[in-house]
Please model this.
Amino acid sequence: MAPVVNAGFISVSYFILLSGFVLAYNYAERARNGQLDRKRFWEARFTRIYPIYFLSLLLSLGQLSGEYPTHTKAMFWTGVVLTPLLLQGFVPAVATFLNTPAWTMSAEAAYYMLFPFVAKWKRPDRIAPHLAKMAGVWVLGLVPGALYIALSPDGIAHPDRWSYGPWLEALKYTPYTHVFSFVFGVMLADLDRMIVRTAKLRLWLGILGFCGIYGLLSLGALVPYPIVHDGLLMPLFGCIVLGLAGENPLARALGVRPLVFVGEASYCLYLLHFNLWNLIHNSHVLNAVGLAKFDPWISYALLIGLAIFALYFIEKPAQRKLREWMHATSVVNSS
Model:
């Protein structure tokens, strides 16, 4: 079980793939029909991600003093400038500047810029040729990790999640290597369209996805970290998405209201958890109120509660204000 628990980092790859799937599910047909207004789409995505992203940066300001001695002066100021602009991911040395999880949003912002063009790809009519193209994207996604293993540019014999090296940081935290997961997710939406919602195949695909991931992760170090970090699990992630997008017992079990409610706050939880965890423990508030004996579970509960609070009292109100100010009410081309 320990190798599975320690592989929480794979959720980022799933998030990127799922992002491509959701965007294509909602907007691909409009893009193909010439109805997707790129400017409005980009504005809508900005209003979706930036309020909580900006809050995460505000909560991270106390980390500036710790960032300064770990970078050259040039790289420090590069991080200061690029991070608020969602561009830090393109410079591996500052990809995790201030708030480690925020590198993902730098990648997502890049993929949002790319999406209106990828979404215009011709809609497939048959499953088999489309699966072959998806397999090609999967193989391309394995190339960066495979090259890292073959060339060992950092000289690390057996890299794992705790290893450090400039090339490994580039592999883990930059938009370049994860773009294949996003494109795979976009293509997955077309595959989803060709499979009946009530098909029993979806249930078995979902079960295969969950069991396959558990089985692979249980192998621990036997599966090379550079390829499991991103690329290897794409097909299994796809099986999970197709399973949960159907009408079956698995989808219903994971679609209960409490899980959906927490899931809506997952973006807030992901971006804020690092800084909120530090805030909770650096302030010693749990010791002060006599709850430290219930840690880490009490901390997990607090993180979820604070994420839900941020969703309803910060993210959603800020989104509404931004959309009103930017007139980002629709992504459909009115011409």
In short: The chain has one domain: 2-248.
